[in-house]
Amino acid sequence: MPPAPSAPSPVDRRPPSVAHLFLSRVEATPDAEAYRYPVPAPGGPGAPAPDVWHSLTWAQTARRVEAVAAGLLSLGIRPEQRVAIASETRVEWIIADLGVMCAGAATTTVYPGTDADETAYILADSGSRVLFAESERQLAKAAAAVERLPGLTHVVLFEEPAERTPVEGLTVLTLGELERRGLAFLERHPGAVRESVAAVGRDGLATLIYTSGTTGRPKGVLLPHDCWAYQGVSQEVSGVLRADDVHYLWLPLSHAFGKALLAGQIRTGHVMAVDGRVDRVIDNLTVIRPTVMACVPRIFEKVYNGVLGRARAEGGTAHRLFLRAADVARRHTALTEAARAGGGKRLPAALRLQHALADRLVYAKVRAAFGGRLRHAVSGSAALAPGVGPFFTGAGIPVLEAYGLTETSAGVAINPPGAPRSGTVGTALPGSEVRIAGDGEILLRGPGVMRGYHGLPEVTAEVLESDGWLRTGDVGELDPEGYLRITDRKKDMFKTSGGKYVAPSEIEGRFKAICPFVGTVVVIGDGRNYCTALITLDESALMPWAAEHGMRGVPYSGVVADPRTRALVDGFVEQLNGGLQRWQTLKRFTLLPRELGVAQGELTPSLKVRRPVVEQAWAREIAAMYPGA
């Protein structure tokens, strides 16, 4: 007899759209808390009052989402037409996005820090009809380019404007006015939104996300509803998110990483605290006390460097205690992972005792700074500096490195919560496939892969094979258990004039592991006879050291220019070079007078380095490192 067919997995039984996913969640747990969001308290004399946190249940959220969806239908929005959102992460962003999708339309995401020219390009290229704008500042970007945006008819403001200034060619509403318009529309057409949701299928366009890109104009990535429905179910099945979680979301929702987490939250139904103000992250942690949180690597690195900097500033016993505790945490993580992979050998008794002591003296304080309940954190968007993840994991905050692209609607691989492996991005999510091409390039296939690039069929064909495999441009390797390790970005690898290939991210990662003061390091050397580096330093780690060395009160730029600072970094560069091949070593380096920035275009909004922009912006400094060239 043939074997009985296996039951379909939850991934195979995923709903056809995010709209269906949302309505199913509302029906299942209407009275459960869905979102928490801060409302600034009225200001007064002295220190500002703390925020007041409000909540929405799933049923309350659904009423607002339905009103927004109906309001868009009343404006004439039709299936798959684009509606843009330009805003920081806030609960209104989520309500607007769900409203767009329940109306059958598609969200165009615009990072709020995007300049006016690129904002106009994205709105025009996408053909967006309506723009949800956080504030008058975002409205001004559209207004300045209104003649380039013939399809844009309405702007909906999240914040009440100080005064209504007419914008020729645009109708400006507030979110409240749109919702009231939607409620009136529903009185005339009570089933309109349900009918729109019923008509949405797996292949219907849900989101158009423009890659922040490291070169040229951004490309619009077409992501159908099935991508997000898959993300939601796969996060639940993998155990990354659970129904009892309290999730702190501050990541930009204009990027796939944040958007994918929304799908997972809707699927599991857990509480999500939403506040995109980066300057409030530390304060919010002890208020929200999250059980799960996702970050870009730079945040973990800054926290680690900050803790190390404070210990160094205290000096003596405190500094030595932290360094010993960090070493114990890393050894504990390494041996725990090795024991798990090799069959469960017990940790040495001496290490267990050292770890218990360090837990009372150091790790408990680190956990308390994160609210004291964090069961794990997720790191994605770029590589985490070696040693940082193992430290936090050993301190009781497992950091699960993950991997994905905008083109895969974010996550395609993640370290399993119960079996992470440092230095890898884990295993493929259920339903996704990973393989390595002959040249080392990582290929991906699965339900999360994009439909293609908007209006760019030839570019789409370059990366998306006819059988569904996506060429990522990343280089990596798979171990026998299916754990994926990223070794470099294919297009970032370069060849020196001596014919030697160099993987810059490998060198940069090693330097971050050695130097606790580094902010960003960019290795240079394409077509040149040796490698050099542009280096920025982490101000939070550097300034306590500077104060100890007679530079208290000196600004960052002055500290960086001081010969003592250069000597400090030179020692770490020598240590780095000792572990590299001759052609990889850094012969010279330059300390930059400021950190690289998103506003200057040197970093993407997800804090990845735009190498061509950096090399152009600092061309004079680079040229000085190659005298006579």
From TrEMBL:
Protein name: Long-chain fatty acid--CoA ligase
Domain named AMP-dependent synthetase/ligase: residues: 25-454
Listed InterPro entries: AMP-binding_CS, AMP-dep_synth/lig_dom, ANL_N_sf
Entry superkingdom: Bacteria
GO function term, MF aspect, one: ligase activity
Annotated PROSITE patterns: AMP_BINDING
Keywords: ATP-binding, Ligase, Nucleotide-binding
Organism: Streptomyces zhihengii
Keyword check for ATP-binding: yes
Position of the signal peptide: none
